[in-house]
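Cross-posting from the modeling subforum.

Setting up a comparison between two proteins and wanted a second pair of eyes on the formatting. Protein 1 (sequence, then structure tokens):
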Amino acid sequence: MTADATPAPVEGARTASGPVKDGPEAFRGPRARTTTAYLRYVAGKVAGAAVSLLAVLVTSFFLFRLIPGDPVKFMTGGRQVSAEQLAGYRREFGLDLPLWQQFTDYCGKALTGDLGTSYQFNAPVVDKITEALPNTLLLTGTAFVLYTALGIVLGTRSAWRHGRPGDRVNTGLALILYSIPSFWLGLLLIITLSVGIGPVPGLFPTGGMESGGEEGFAQVLDVAHHLVLPVVTLVAVEYGQTLLVTRSALLDEMGSDYLTTARAKGLRDDLVRRRHAVPNALLPTVTLIFINLGRTVAGVILVETVFSWPGLGGLFYQALSVPDLPLVQGLFFVFAAAVIVMNTLADLIYPLLDPRVGR
């Protein structure tokens, strides 16, 4: 039989390897199908993040309307004012409008990047957030790098030496510090290392970001001096979570067959740990790292308040005490958006670390 006489595949016919595919699907290889699946996965995660941001926008408006207090009376500074003046203030800030109209105005402006005007500072909320954001990133960013590195290193060592005295000490200390409220630990550090006890003088400032009057490198050292205690507080409280998650994930991997095979090939324990066990145990730690990275934008409200640090956390505390509704709403939205965005990025990175995710 010649080549011309060979019958063509019939649509729907089967071969030894399965049904014969025709059309565009026949030319799509495994790489194309994997890319399509990943794009669908990305689209689903981005859509979910958008819905979450919309829910946060709605929640931030209605939640803080439950806070007791009249922002208009705060703006008068306790002075005796007439009813006409109070009505003028309410009209100026749109507080005389029906609640549904206030909500639609808020959502419409927020979608264009306008988060309103702060009552107490009489300045755009975006400007106040932009002004305080670098201070928060300096504090929480420094602490984030330190407690993430410390938690991963100690968590890896504890898991690899499971049951030994070092593991018990590391795990016990991490649990103790993780359970301590950050504001309480901050107050203890201020009492012992700032105020001083008995003949022991205070070594660090009690609060603030700088003493003032310094320039150049002296100013950098002054800021670093003020940074020590709040960073120590955050690292002490937060590193335990990273340690415990890393340790638990690595313990789950240590009984796997591929590690036994690697040891049987003669690889040293440190190489088995670095090249095989740790990379495969990083998924839960990556989730935690990205969530904590989102929190670096939010800052730590209690720690910034205790140490009078001029960041977003301290600004949020000031806004709640009024209540300064536009500033509180704007900060809440920024805090939640940072966590949502970072969590979404972690989800998008998962398939790159483990191809089984997203299929």
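Protein 2 (same layout):
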Amino acid sequence: MSSQDIPEENLPAARDHAHGEVADEQHPFADPGLPPHEHRIQDIDEKAAKRSERAVAFLFTLSMLATVAFIAAFVAIDHEKSIYVFPIGHINALNFALGLTLGVALFCIGAGAVHWARTLMSDVEVADERHPIEASPEVRAKVHADFKQGAKESGFGRRKLIRNTMFGAVALVPLSGVVLLRDLGPLPEDKLRHTLWNKGKLLVNMNTNEPLRPSDVAVGSLTFAKPEGLEEHDEEFQNEIAKAALMIVRLQPDNIKDKRELEWSHEGIVAYSKICTHVGCPISLYEQQTHHVLCPCHQSTFDLSDGARVIFGPAGHALPQLRIGVNDEGYLEALGDFEEPVGPAFWERG
């Protein structure tokens, strides 16, 4: 389109002339300025402003109710219950309720804030000249003045209904996150400090599922054991074996350097937790000549002839030892539980 096709009143020179700014050779396109401000109905009609205020307050109140419904749903709805929702199909009732109520709570806060800004806060456009990055005292004073003016025009101090309901909505919605954090899993209580091992519990070979006798453990061999009565088809098998898994090694008593280790062994047979104290990987590599065991995940190395202390790698502490003996029938048995928690460190471990 050429300049001849543009209406004369829309050309820059004519437009600038209409605004009282005549373009020159240095500034052929002078700043046309801002269009005249058009007042909204809320600016001139207090009844309309009150209606908008009530609408914003309603959205914030609805957000509060949705947050309360979120918490109620979390407590009341069975996590295994399912419902049919068209057109999605069968879905978990708890997940659907939590998603719906949390979505409504967050949406209403956002919608209330947008409606407040568009209908009640000042919408006057202000053009400001660019200034250096470093603010001068005059600019800082102007910013403070503009902030106070903006706060006044927003009606934040005058419209207490909106302010109070907004505070309520914003204060309640974080409770949803608190409830979700509670659902990260069951509280550990003291479960991490105890295993299935106790006095008189037989050591059962993981491969043969038979109780172990001292003669079953040869010098230099590595055997894995579990507590008597723990079967793979048990519902809690994985949770329990992750704490109770044992590795059994037979050493020459003269090669055992740690006094307590020797006292807790039987004829050189020592029983240590199989769970690495770094991140909980199962230890499965044994060096017969050095009596070292190696975790395959991050190469933490423990000396089984010296209290299973850490000699290499990121593990933080030695492997816990299980005190063992032999019962009247000649089978290896535990003489109690581990005296310290097995596996990696945790916050309450001390």
